Amino acid sequence: MTAEIQVEQLLQAAKAAREQAYAPYSGYKVGAALQTKNGIFAACNVENASYGGTICAERAAVCAAVAGGEREFLALAVVTDGPEPGPPCGLCRQVLAEFAADLPIYLGNLAGKVVELNLATLFPAAFGSGFLEGKKNG
Ligand code: THU
Asked: What pTM does this model have?
């Protein structure tokens, strides 16, 4: 049985996680929440004075879910502030595609606007494990 996507709960979890964002350099706070069949795993962006050390909310959510024993993602919600809800960056798209190339994504902002997308649309022709098959000993 496939679990229903809990869009409202997912957006609420992402919004709550966003409150914890550590973003003193950009001021751009992001919350992300992944739904799996066993629950919701949320995280925020964590910036660093060495800017390259910054971790996006979406990748942090992937790490939280995987560390919680989850590798099958049903949907992702991302909440940012701004007139247009912000999509996952390219690096996060790549990391999400590792686990769910056609992941449904709900982008929200604090004004309540929600944009529904799919990772397959945002990130077509992704590089994936298939390209590495048979190469390990090469
Ligand atoms: N950020 C995310 O958390 N997710 C994205 O997909 C885009 C960017 C964060 C990283 C940094 O803390 C801030 O937003 C500005 O780039």
From this structure: 0.96
Whether the pLDDT of residue 138 is over 80: the answer is no
Query: What's the 44 CA to ligand 1 centre distance in angstroms?
Result: 9
Structure tokens at 47: 């910036």
Q: Which of 19, 22, 30, 51 to mutate to test the pocket of ligand 1 (most atoms within 8 A of CB)?
A: 30
Q: Is the per-residue pLDDT at 54 higher than 70?
A: yes
Residue 134 lies inside a defined structural domain of this protein: no
Atom from ligand 1 closest to the CA of residue 92: 6
Catalytic residues: 58
How far apart CA 65 and CA 24 sit, in angstroms, is: 25
Residue 25, domain extent: 18-30+37-55
60 within a domain of the structure (yes/no): no
